[in-house]
Each structure stands twice: as structure tokens, then as C-alpha cells.
Amino acid sequence: MNTTLRTRIALFIVLSPSFILCSFFMITPILIVLSYSLMSRDDYGAVVYKLTLDNYRTLLDPIYAKVFLNSFLYGLSNTVICLAFAYPVAYFVAFKAKRWGSVVLALILIPFWVNFLIRISAWIVLLSREGLINDFLLTLGLTGNPITMLGTPEAVMAGLFYAFLPSAILPIYSALQPIERSLLEAADDLGATPAQTFMRVTLPLSMPGVMAAALFVFVPTMGVFAIPVLLGGGKGILIGNLVVQLFLEFRSIPLGSAVASVMLAISMAGIYFYMRALRSFERRMA
């Protein structure tokens, strides 16, 4: 038995447990959802095991198309806003914070240590008519009456921004941190202004992190459930809300599975284009 064959056998033995676990806990549920999306339901909500594409045809209805469009707009808006705020923060931590960088990173990570629902519920206290923000505005005399903030698109956007901003900061920071400082010094020695150095050196080298941050924000925003319900009152339905309603309220498991399958396809498409863009970037840099 040659060395190459022994190495492959050893690698197979080592990776087999992980592959089996991933297949059981990740691939199997996805296959179940995909199979349900090809079924139908009877008048009482029970699944009828008969193959059909009617669920996907139903999603072409303008009602569902509006939900997907609404989710896309929320996802795009939140991605742009998060990137606009995340890049300066990540740049500061990577290049300016020095010994305080670890402290700032810890402050960014603290929200991940608290339950997601608790963090979002805290915004109800802040945005309610009797909340801290209204008290602050009334104290300063900026408004004569409490402002209704909950149940508005602005409240949903505030919650989305708060929830996913750390997911944008960390990938950008990870891309900025390894940049050789000698490259920036060389650009300065060659007469480049700080703006030119940023546009021609720092930003291009950090683009993989920016693309990853966009992916980490855009896809979860489209599928989030709790934020539109708690802060928006369920008025602006996103894909996550639609899936929950179809499963629990309308007892339409096949149609809900079809929506979830479409969301999965969108996620996979995002990952595919990210990987292609990353490979193209690496080829250009090489």
C-alpha cells in the first residue's frame, strides 16, 4: 500500500464522522423541506403525498411576489446602511485603535452573548410611546407629544441595523487586519494622498471582507422573523414571517416549504456569486 493510498484512507476515516453528522443534521432536513414543497394539502391542512409543482406556481401570485420584493428591499437597504457604518468602525479598530482594539471588539461581540429575542425586545422599551427615546425628546422639548415609533418601517430598520451591524463589522475587520502596513507606507512615500491610498490600496484589499459582510447581512435580513413582528407589528411581512404564517396559521406545510426552498435557493445563489467574485478578485490580485 503506497503512501498516497494510506493518506486517503486515513483522511476518509477522519472525515467520515463529520460527513455523517452534517448529512444527518443539515442535508436531511433540507431534503425533507424540498420534498414537502412538492406535495399538496387537503382541506384540513394534512399533507397529501402527491407530487405537484402547484406550490411554486402559487408563489408567482402578485401577493407573494410583493412579499419577496419587500424582503429584497429591506435586505438591500439594511445591507447598504450596515456597510456604511461597519467599514469606518472596522477601519478604526484595525488601524487606529491599537491597544484598545481588543476592547472595542469585545464591545462589538457583547450583543452575541445575549439572547436575540431579549435584545430585540429591549428596543420595544426604547421605541414605545412611554419609552426612553420619547422621554428624552419630551425632556429636551423637541416634541410636545409622544411619537409613535413602534409599528413603523423605521422601527423595523432600526432593529435590523442593530441586529446585523456586528455581522458586517467582523468580516471587514478580518480583511483589514492582515493588510501589510508597509504597503500603506510605500504609497505614502510615492506621494499618494491618504484618500488615494485608501481607494487604491486599502479598499481593494478589503473587498473580500466587504463582500462577505454584504452576504452575512443581506440573506439573514430577508429571512428574519422576530424583528418585523416585535417592532413592526407584523405590518411589513418578510419571507420569514410568511413561512411562519403558512406553517402555523394557515396549516399549509407544502406552500411554506416552497417559500423556504426559494429562500434557500436565494442563499445558495448569494454564496455562489460571492465565491465567484472572490476567485475573480484573487486572480486580479495575483
Concise summary:
With 286 residues, this protein is mainly α. The protein is built from 12 helices and 2 strands; from the N terminus they run H-E-E-H-H-H-H-H-H-H-H-H-H-H.
Outline the biggest β-sheet: 2 strands, antiparallel
Strand percentage, roughly? under 5%
Uncertain stretches of 5 or more adjacent residues: none
Output the number of helix runs: 12
Q: What is the helical fraction, as a range of percent?
A: over 70%
Main β-sheet, spatial strand arrangement: 1-2
- Cα shape: globular
Give the CA-CA distance, first to last residue.
39 Å
Helix/strand class:
mainly alpha
Number of strands: 2
**C-alpha Rg, in Å?**
24 Å
Average residue-wise pLDDT: 86
Helix and strand sequence: HEEHHHHHHHHHHH
Helices and strands in order, then pairings?
Blueprint: H1 3-36, E1 40-41, E2 47-48, H2 54-58, H3 62-96, H4 101-109, H5 116-127, H6 132-140, H7 153-176, H8 181-189, H9 194-223, H10 226-230, H11 239-249, H12 253-285
Antiparallel strand pairs: 1-2
Helix pairs in contact: 1-12, 3-4, 3-7, 3-9, 7-9, 8-9, 9-12, 11-12
Please name the defining characteristics of this protein:
286 residues; two-stranded antiparallel sheet
Describe the structure.
By secondary structure, the protein is mainly α. It is 76% helix and 1% strand. The chain has a two-stranded antiparallel ribbon with strand order 1-2. Strand 1 and strand 2 form a beta hairpin. It is globular, with a radius of gyration of 24 Å. The model has no long low-confidence stretch (mean pLDDT 86).
